Amino acid sequence: MTAKIGGMIILPDGVLVEVKAKLTPRQVDVLKLKLRGYTAKEMGQELFISRRAVESHWNEVRETLNVTGLKELIEWAVKSGLIEYHI
Fold first, then answer.
1. Are the beta carbons of 45 and 30 closer than 8 angstroms?
2. pTM, full prediction
3. CA dist list (Å): 85 to 8, 75, 82
4. Nearest alpha-carbon partner for 67 in 31, 42, 37, 39
5. Phi and psi at residue 5, in whole multiples of 5°?
6. Is 31 within 8 Å of 43 (Cβ atoms)?
7. What are the CA-CA distances from residue 57 to residues 24, 29, 84 (Å)?
8. According to a count of CB atoms within 10 Å of the terminal CB, is the N or C end of the chain lower?
């Protein structure tokens, strides 16, 4: 579960993230797991929701962040500081 403070979100691992887009805590959970490579089925098991609910949240995330796929999501996450990229 995540905690939200104003425009900031504290992820379960203690990482504080500023989210400029308006994402719900559940959408952030799906976003985080997607970035870790989880499938919709695995996310559903982890979050105790159906695969269809995961897909719905994922579609809302994509729409809110204006990304079409994982590549654009990763680019957004790097630019926003949600994840670090090292060569």
1. no
2. 0.69
3. 21, 10, 10
4. 31
5. -130, 105
6. no
7. 9, 9, 24
8. C
Which tens digit of pLDDT belongs to each residue from 60-80?
A: 999 888 888 888 888 887 887
Residue type, 27: Q
Take residue 13 and report the two structure tokens written for it: 């691992």
Residue that is written with structure tokens 């952030």 in the block:
28
Alpha helix segments (H runs only) across the chain: 25-35, 40-47, 51-65, 70-80
**Which tokens hold the place of 6?**
């104003």
In the numeric block, which tokens belong to residue 37? 């490579």
The amino acid occupying position 47 is L
Domains of the chain: 22-87 (1.10.10.10)
Euclidean distance between CA atoms 39 and 50, whole angstroms: 12
Residue 10 phi/psi, 5° resolution? -100, 115
Tokens 């425009």 correspond to what residue?
7
